[in-house]
Amino acid sequence: MDGLSQKDANLALSELSRVGIPASRETNADNTYAITVRGDDLVEALQTLNAAGLPQRTSQSIPELFPGDGLIVTPFELKARLAYAQNEEVRRQLLAIEGVVDALVRISASSDQPRLREPMAPTASAVVTLRPGVDPLATTVKLKSVIAAAVQGLDYQGVTVVTTPAATMEAAVGVEPDTAFSLRGMFTILAFALLLATLALAVGPQTLQRLRGSTR
C-alpha cells in the first residue's frame, strides 16, 4: 500500500500489529509513506485495513473545486460551499457512531421555486460502510436519526441509508489485490458522483440552464 499520509501509515501499522501481521513502513521521495507486508499476508492485511476504514477517504475540498483568490464569491459557488459544508458536517457526525468506517452523504435542500405549488421538503441519502459484525438494522436507525436531526426541516422518513459491511468492499478472500484496489477506486468515483449531484441540486435547474447557455 503506497502513497499514504503519515497518519494513515501509523494507523495501518497499529492495526496490522493488533492482529499479528508483520509490516514495515517506508518513506517515499514525495514525503508519502508505503506499508509493506509479506505476500502470504497480503489478502488478510487488505481485509484488516479495509475493515478499519484505512486508508481514510479524503474528500475533494472546495478550494480544489473552485480554485481562485476567493475575494469574489459567485452565487453558484456560495451554494456549492454551503452544500459541501453541510454534507461534510453530517458525514463527520456519522463517523462518530460506533461501527461506522466511512460514509457518503448527499443532502437535497428544500426548494421554494415559483413553479412549484408546494415547497419540496428536504431529503437526504447516505451510503455507509460498517465494520464486520455490526448490526446494520440497529445502526441504520441511529444513522437516520442523526441525519434527520442535523438538517433543519428534514423528516426521518425523508432519509435513505444504505449500509454495507467493510469486508465486502474489497479484499475478500480470493480477490486479487488489483481487483481490491479497483473496488476502492469505484467507491471514490461514487463519492465524487454524489458530490456533483449535490452541487447540481444546490444551484437549481435555472442556474444550470444559464451556465449551459453561457458555454455555447
Please supply descriptive tags for the structure shown above.
single chain, alpha+beta, two-stranded antiparallel sheet, three-stranded mixed beta sheet, Alpha-Beta Plaits, 16% strand, 5 strands, 6 helices, 47% helix
Would you write up a description of this structure?
The longest helix is centred in the C-terminal third of the chain and has 38 residues. Helix 4 packs antiparallel against helix 6. It is flat and about 65 Å long. Among the domains are: 47 residues, Hypothetical protein rpa1041 (Alpha-Beta Plaits), CATH 3.30.70.1530; 104 residues, ANL, C-terminal domain (GMP Synthetase, Chain A, domain 3), CATH 3.30.300. A hairpin with a 5-residue loop joins strand 1 and strand 2. The protein is an alpha+beta fold and 216 residues long. 47% of the residues lie in helices and 16% in strands. About 8% of the residues have low confidence. The protein has six helices and five strands; from the N terminus they run H-E-E-H-H-H-E-E-H-E-H. The strands form two sheets. Strands 3-4-5 form a three-stranded mixed beta sheet. It has a two-stranded antiparallel sheet with strand order 1-2.
